[in-house]
Amino acid sequence: MVGSGDGAPPTTSVATETVTVTTTAAAPTPAQATMTVTATPATETHTVTETLEAETVTVEAEAVTETVTVGPPEPEIAFSGDGIYEVGVDIQPGTYVADAGDGCYWARLSGSDGFDSIITNHFGAGQTIATIKESDRFFETSDCGPWSRRD
Q: Who has greater pLDDT, 96 or 57?
């Protein structure tokens, strides 16, 4: 295989070889024989390694700017469902908001002995806000949906 080094594809040439063998045989009458043998061409393998230099390509592109307006993240639910929650154990003091349906009721309680322990309460519909203080013992909620901490 022969390459010219100028980028042209390499070429292959096959060599043939003819061998002539002369023998004299010893027989009752000496004779001379001539024999011609044609040998099969040998197979040769050549590996050609060519190193090319890398080409640097510079592409210019127009800058694209996209403006995305994102609203505030959804508030994390602090507690949900109807029930009486113990302040400092079940829920922490703070301001909470709920998007209540019709008939939402909540109350801040100083104890668990009924009407006498109501500090303040609310009954209504729509968004409602309750601020639970460290001095509150319990917080009662009914039909208000999930509550999210607002502080």
A: 96
| Cα separation, 94 vs 79, whole angstroms | 13
For the chain, what is the radius of gyration of the CA atoms?
Answer: 50
113 lies in some domain = yes
| Angstrom distance (rounded) from CA 66 to CA 39 | 76
Three-state DSSP at 115 gives helix
First and final C-alpha spacing in the chain? 82
**pLDDT tens digit sequence for 7-62:** 555 555 555 555 554 545 454 555 455 555 555 665 666 666 667 777 888 878 78
**Residue 128 belongs to what domain range?**
77-149
DSSP run (H or E) holding 104: strand 94-109
**To the nearest whole number, what is the mean pLDDT of the chain?**
77
Q: Are β-strands 118-132 and 94-109 bridged in parallel, bridged antiparallel, or unpaired? A: antiparallel
Q: Is residue 54 part of a domain?
A: no
Distance CA 98, CA 145 (A): 6
pLDDT tens, residue by residue, 65-84: 888 877 777 667 888 889 99
Spatial CB neighbours of 38, under 8 Å, sequence gap ≥ 6: 16, 18, 19
What's the number of domains the chain is made of?
A: 1
